[in-house]
Amino acid sequence: xxxxxxxxxxxxxxxxxxxxxxxxxxxxxxxxxxxxxxxxxxxxxxxxxxxxxxxxxxxxxxxxxxxxxxxxxxxxxxxxxxxxxxxxxxxxxxxxxxxxxxxxxxxxxxxxxxxxxxxxxxxxxxxxxxxxxxxxxxxxxxxxxxxxxxxxxxxxxxxxxxxxxxxxxxxxxxxxxxxxxxxxxxxxxxxxxxxxxxxxxxxxxxxxxxxxxxxxxxxxxxxxxxxxxxxxxxxxxxxxxxxxxxxxxxxxxxxxxxxxxxxxxxxxxxxxxxxxxxxxxxxxxxxxxxxxxxxxxxxxxxxxxxxxxxxxxxxxxxxxxxxxxxxxxxxxxxxxxxxxxxxxxxxxxxxxxxxxxxxxxxxxxxxxxxxxxxxxxxxxxxxxxxxxxxxxxxxxxxxxxxxxxxxx
Length: 408
Fold this sequence. Notes:
There is one protein chain. This protein is an all-beta fold. Helix content is 1%, strand content 43%. The protein has one domain (11-187, 203-406): YVTN repeat-like/Quinoprotein amine dehydrogenase (Methylamine Dehydrogenase, Chain H), CATH 2.130.10.10. Strands 7, 8, 9, 10 and 11 form a 5-stranded antiparallel sheet that branches. Strands 1-28-27-26 form a 4-stranded antiparallel sheet, with no helix packed on it. Strand 9 and strand 10 (105-110) form a beta hairpin. The longest helix is centred in the last third of the chain and has 4 residues, at 308-311.
């Protein structure tokens, strides 16, 4: 039986609470947990689009989440979309809808008093060919890794405008770029010829998630959209070097979003992003990749998903997107056996990968369509799991924040 968008579907997850965020429930893919000095848990959320910038929600009592601050963007042609939190400092990305527009880059905020975030500095990434920063990774308090344009970078194709940049923020008031890497052939003047484009789904050769973990601080794991999964050697941050590039598009429809290493297992979990409605770019998958030989990643399985015909025509997108990324910060849940991800209209889903050749779905939660959502169905966009095994997930357009308990 095909599920209806007005139904709630669940397995081994139950709703603890729901908050519409004061009528501004469209949230992007930035979620960060702060363990505040006064022993509160503050969940910071980046909005999908204007007018709001970010919202902070006190989730100390998960049954009674409470908004403590909600901020505004300067104009409608900029979005924040991504943020990360380390201690009392938060990095927030800014991407504009057109090149040569400001603000485009990232801000650092002092959030020691969550109700009163204070701007520390702005890193400017605007330029003639730049829309700024789409995604940040900030987990060590020292470096911001990001998918960004730059004033001195002219892409060979406008869709290739964001690449991997490393910014030193050890002096938060004076952030400074220390390194960058782009896929050869994507910048005007490269000796490598321009890259071939996907015949139907050309999403661009540009960076998305740029993850670096303390287990391997000399490696960056980058989802490079049309360019596939990239592993970089960043032992010398001023000169990142390519270690491996696993590409599967074409024949697949591309948009590599996240490369999540499971270090003890020598595996990579690689997620696509669905970017078209009604199943037009199906399949959008989560891949399990054998990384025992780092220079030669080999796909060995994909996560099982419900039939595309059950969800694809309910409105909006259906397919893989964000994963809980085992963030190496206090308050974050970490697991190498259970992976939790969002699938837009398919809700939030958890998978047991203890047997990497046969991943098993073990839990899911699909809320009904939010009121006033233009998609007509739930569109869960991002997920964060805290060390209490509580799952926080957000709707892209109107639904706001859902707090769930995994009962597995």
